[in-house]
Design brief:
Ribosomal_bS20_sf; 87 residues; mainly alpha; Methane Monooxygenase Hydroxylase, Chain G, domain 1; 85% helix
Amino acid sequence: MAHSKSAKKRILQTAVRTERNRYYRTRLKNIVKAVHTAVEAEDKTAANEAFKIANKQIHSLVSKGFIKKTTASRKVSRLHKLVNKVA
């Protein structure tokens, strides 16, 4: 267990950061999953709507610093190709 005041603070900060990252990671997975389920159902309008939401949400994660810009554009590009196959 931590003895110094700074070590205790670091433990608390790490716990908060871990919880925040877990939330964003789950959110990202759910966003991508929503697009995949719409595509599997072959529902063109639902897939386009899910893609619009996913695009916006993924880029908001970039602005928060959770993922890099290149990672976001790779994910968006792959989702876009998937949605265009339905169309």
